[in-house]
Amino acid sequence: MLVSVEEMEQAFWTQNPHGRKMASELREQPLQPLSPHPAPPLVPKGSRFALGPAEAVAAATRRQMTLVMRDKVLLKGRIMQVIVLGLLTGSLFYNQGVSLIASRTMFGACFMSTLFMSFGGFPQLPVTMELKKVWFKHRAAGFYPAYAQGMAMALSQLPLSTLESIIFSLIMYFMVNFYRQPGYFFTFMLIMATCSMSVSSLFRYMACLCPNMVVANAAVGFVFVFLILTSGFAIVHKSIPPWMIWAYWISPQGYALRALVVNEMVSPKWQDVPAPPGMSAGLSLGDAALMSFDFYRERKWIWIGVGFLIGSFIVLTYTSIISLAFQQPEVPTAQIPDPEDLQKARHRAEERHAKLVQEEAVTAAEAAVIEVRPPSAGALPMKKLQKLPQEVGRNKHSREEGASVGSNPPGMVVSPSLAALQDFNEISSSLPFTPITLVFQDLKYWVPNPAYSRRAAKAAAKAAAEANQAGIDTHARTSAAAAAGAGATAGKTDIEMAPNKLPATAGATTGATAGGDGGVPMAARERLQLLSGITGYNEPGVLLALMGGSGAGKTTLMDVIAGRKTIGEIGGTITVNGHQADPRAWSRVMGYVEQFDIHSPGQTVEEALQFSARLRLPRSLSDSQVRAYVEEVLEIVDLLPLMGALVGSPGASGLSVEARKRLTIAVELVANPSCIFLDEPTSGLDARAAAIVMRAVRNVACNGRTVMVTIHQPSIEIFESFDDLLLIQRGGLTTYFGPLGRHSTDLIAYFMAVPGTPTLPAGFNPATWMLEVTGGSMATVLNRVDVDWPAHYAASELAVKNNARAQALVDEGFKTARALEVGSRYAMPFGTQVRVLLRKFNLAYWRAPGYNFMRVGMTLVTSFIYAAVYWGEGKVPNPATIANVQNVMGIMFASSNFLGMINLMSVMPVVGYERVVFYRERGASMYNPFAYGAAIALVEMPYLLIQALIFVPIIYFMIGFDPLPEQFFYYIIVFFETIAFYTIFGQTLVYITPAQTIAQVVGGGFNFLFNVFNGFIITYPDMPSGWRWMNRAVPPTWILYGLGISQLGNDDGELIYGGTSMPVNEFMKERFGYRYDMRWWVVLILLAYVLVLRVGSILALKYWNFLRR
Q1: In terms of DSSP bridges, do strands 1060-1063 and 1054-1057 run parallel, antiparallel, or are they unpaired?
Q2: Rounded distance, CA 591 to CA 669, Å?
Q3: Kind and range of the H or E element at 982?
Q4: Is the peptide bond before 790 cis (omega within 30 degrees of 0)?
Q5: H-helix or E-strand containing 283?
Q6: pLDDT confidence of residue 288
Q7: 103 with 1058: CB under 8 angstroms?
Q8: 942 φ, ψ to 5°?
Q9: d(CA 553, CA 548)
Q10: C-alpha separations of 364 from 704, 906, 1107 in Å
Q11: Distance CA 948, CA 892 (A)
Q12: Which of 51, 622, 750, 814 could potentially form a cystine with 56 if both were Cys, beta carbons 3.0 to 4.6 Å apart?
């Protein structure tokens, strides 16, 4: 019966004695203010915020500076990147001379300096996107205004931008041989610093404006490359059409580049040298060089550029503040299942229930008690494990007492969570499985000590040796004195025995150094022991709780048993049905429910379960059988109404926390495992949700499976739903292992047998009582008992019985059961793995419009922008100038680099989240990493082909490239290979770096290297001989080679440059090193890069694991 809130309120004030008393007191004594002059409010009237403007900005800036300084990895990475890339770039442009040909190289050095400072702003994107999540909460709580947050983000980056500019300027300026005079150098440094400030503020603004990371990556890539494109180097100023010239005048990179080249070319170094013959009389070499690229020649453009960069920094910071003030976070979309599909699933569930009831009725008529096959005979497949309702899932101690799951003491109030626990689904698996008896004996685990220091270890060893020697000397002196008084014979005997009678102190010190904790400093221990000889077992149908205080080693023990550890050393034995656990077979029959619910957000609940089931169930099962079993599992975990809901991203969209946890359990359950491990399945859930999850876990155990659960401070109802308990303390020491008993009677009796243990208060949670008296948690009500509980357990009769029982289970299983065997590591063949993975990724990509529609839409928009900027520039006139060639090569350089970087940056968030999912699925032996790599490569192909077929036809004919069919289709092939390379390269960077932020920094660094060495900014013949191999090694060299040679390599028109003339194709061969007969080899070289990178990324997935366990 539902009762409204108003009715409950009325009942409280009129029927409840406490409510009536409170109402009477309020009527008799109305509330009076304490003083006729109340204290002023904490927040002034008319203001939303407690802090004034200056205080808010200062507080937010301090916080932001703290966050910046604490990100040591990013800080060190950026500084190292500046130094390394600065040295590489400086060595490439090393010691340039003074000539018209050298001027283009100097312009290239200035362009690369601007480009490098611009790339330094890329880390602002992920950092700001993460800060926005916190900012939305702070804004809702009224912490401080938007201008405080916006100014804090801007001001906190100024020191780092300045430091990067100083380091890069010091390296670049003197290695390239710019004009060495203090005024010119500091002007160069000022331009670098203001360029970095301006571009970083642009990236922050885009991050504040965009709703998510995928959109932000695409939008920033578009704006960034568009501004680079119109900066005046990829296409010279006067070649930009009038309708696009506005972009030239708003580009921060354009102002920075113009200021840099003017700063150098107006120096005496270039002004004192006349222009070469054939050019206008009276021109200096510096002016002639500036005119050849349509740069302005007046010195005022230096300070115009600096002013624009500072002004754009202020304006973009202001617009970021406006965006922070008014933008709203993304709202999760509602998910409604398909009513028809849901009705069909419910109908099938009713049929299964009816069939199950009929089978149980027949079985009950045949026998009063159904004998359950003992676990030791678990080598044979078991169809169904049926129990009496009173005995479902209880251990032998409970059965002896005649307890039932649903029984409660007289007068006990049944809470909603207890009612949820008792609402069992009486179902039995329709698929056979092998019951597992799991035994672990004397388990130990060591990990490398991250604080280990060789110096500290040597000092500790030296101290131990000195203490040992001092003990020996003291004992020798004592023995000698005793010998002098007692006689030579006795003295001789004592002295001979002295070396074997070390003092207790020395022996303890030596032992501590060898491996124990003792008094050895933490820094002197080479490894730390996390588990210390734990012995236990778990039988089919028994629900085992694994508990302990924070840091006790609960998850560590479970990871060791499940074979999920990637570092450290393991000791002891783990046996499955009496046989040593084989990792390959063990991973196939075991399910591991991790603490964090990691799923692909683009799948529905049903699809996620079908994916796991199809890849992990035997290949003998048909797809219809798999689908039926998935529906059965959906019913077990109460997810049938949500079967059509998208999983979504945690905290943003999709399933609730509790439903996501049940999905995590179901993903493992559909694999039909014999043994299931669950790591804190109730963490973060309220009482009702935790009870629902534990009901699902209880159902799994009722089905005859071996279940082990780590749990932290459960409620009374949840705690008493377990059968057995393994309690450990910090250091991996066993405090208790045994049955709980009805209402925890066995557990309470064990601890109460120890003198001094406080009595369990009435209504108190036995789990909390247990942890407080043993020191597993902070004592709040009870005092910790000063007893060495692990030592007490080790000396107890219970430990002796447990050790004997564990060995008996091993011996019995070894005699009666066979070792687990699997035909191969994976349940399904390679082709099926690729098919299932491809279906998953196809659906995920189709449901990710933020990724695919964005990059396809950006490709369409970009193609028209490039066509508008380079309209008609593809037709090289006869005679041509170097500006014409520069423009044609510029469109190829800019377009391939732009769309390549769009794909590279956009794919990172997608594969970054999927990588974590891959780690979970790899641990479950779902599929071969090569099947995963093949599927994720194939799913990209249609979208990449669409990009190529959209972009190339539009720009090709609007720009005016060669209309021959061979040249056109060749351009499409090379461009398709280009975006495929960048996409796979972005995936690879995510796979080989620990975090997406680092991958983006590394991606920006690699792209900078590509731009330096690809032969556009400084051509192959102009490179120092020591760096020419790098030009041939970077893939974008061959991209530019193929695109450029297809349009200019066969052009025999005249080109005039520096007073001399030559054919265009000869100029390409001489100045760029491009040969027309290499064009099809270029296609094969790019294909080889794509394939090698794809295989390399798969190998990185297979052998590199940044999920350290």
Answers
A1: antiparallel
A2: 7
A3: helix 965-992
A4: no
A5: none
A6: 86
A7: no
A8: -60, -40
A9: 8
A10: 19, 61, 50
A11: 14
A12: 51
**Which three-class secondary structure state does DSSP give residue 846?**
helix
Task: Count CB atoms within 10 A of the CB of residue 996.
Answer: 19
Q: Regarding beta strands 590-593 and 543-548, do their DSSP bridges make them parallel or antiparallel, or are they unpaired?
A: unpaired
- In 499-568, where do the E strands start and end? 527-538, 543-548
The tokens for 783 are 């005092």
Element (H, E) at 388: none
CA 210, CA 217: separation in Å to the nearest integer? 9
Q: What is the pLDDT of residues 231-272, one digit of tens each?
A: 888 777 787 888 888 888 988 988 999 999 999 999 998 888
| Cβ atoms of 537 and 437 closer than 8 Å | yes
**How many helices and strands, by DSSP H and E, does the chain display?**
42, 12
DSSP structure string for 461-485: HHHHHHHHHHHHHHHHHHHHHHHHH
Place of tokens 């704006």: 223
Helix pair angle (965-992, 882-923), 10° resolution:
40
* Residue the block writes with tokens 């005046």: 232
Structure confidence by residue, pLDDT tens digits, 181-217: 999 999 999 999 999 999 999 989 988 888 877 778 7
Q: Please give the angle made by the CA atoms of 970, 975 and 981, to the nearest 5 degrees.
A: 130
Higher pLDDT, 1059 or 375: 1059
Residue 169: closest CA among 109, 227, 108: 109
Distances (CA, A) of 1055 to 485, 880, 1022, 1038: 114, 5, 19, 24
Q: What is the largest CA-CA distance in the chain?
A: 120
- In angstroms, rounded to a whole number, what is the distance separating the alpha carbons of residues 220 and 858? 11
Q: Tokens in use for 225? A: 């490359």
User: Between vectors from CA 840 to CA 838 and to CA 845, what angle results, nearest 5°?
Assistant: 90
Q: 845 in helix, strand or coil? A: helix
Q: Residues near 461 by Cβ (< 8 Å), separated by ≥ 6?
A: 513, 524
Closest CA to 289 of 304, 268, 274: 274
Q: Which candidate, 495, 150, 494, 546, places its Cα nearest to that of 317?
A: 150
Poorest-pLDDT segment among 616-630, 878-892, 927-941: 878-892
Confirm if 461 and 513 have CB atoms less than 8 A apart. Answer: yes
pLDDT at position 382, please?
A: 36
For residue 214, give Cα distances in angstroms to 122, 126, 900, 904. Answer: 14, 10, 15, 11
Average pLDDT value for the chain:
79
CB 639 within 8 A of CB 669: no
Query: For residue 92, what are its two tokens?
Result: 């490439």
Question: Residue 658 is encoded by which pair of tokens?
Answer: 């509790």
Helix ranges restricted to H, 177-299? 182-209, 213-229, 245-250, 252-265, 268-271, 285-292
Residue 909 CB: number of other CB atoms within 10 A?
23
Residue 671 CB: number of other CB atoms within 10 A? Answer: 24
Round to whole Å and give the CA distance between 209 and 490: 91
Q: Note whether 793 and 799 are within 8 A (CB).
A: yes
What is the C-alpha end-to-end distance of the chain, expressed in Å? 49
Q: Strands across the sheet with 579-580, in order?
A: 527-538, 438-448, 569-576, 579-580
Integer Cα distance of 929 and 1101 in angstroms:
7
Query: What is the rounded radius of gyration, in angstroms, for the C-alpha atoms of the chain?
Result: 37
Q: How does strand 590-593 pair with strand 675-679? A: parallel
Candidates 745, 729, 728; CA nearest to 737 is 728
Place of tokens 């009929």: 358
Give one DSSP letter per residue of 890-927, joined into a string.
HHHHHHHHHHHHHHHHHHHHHHHHHHHHHHHHHHTT-S
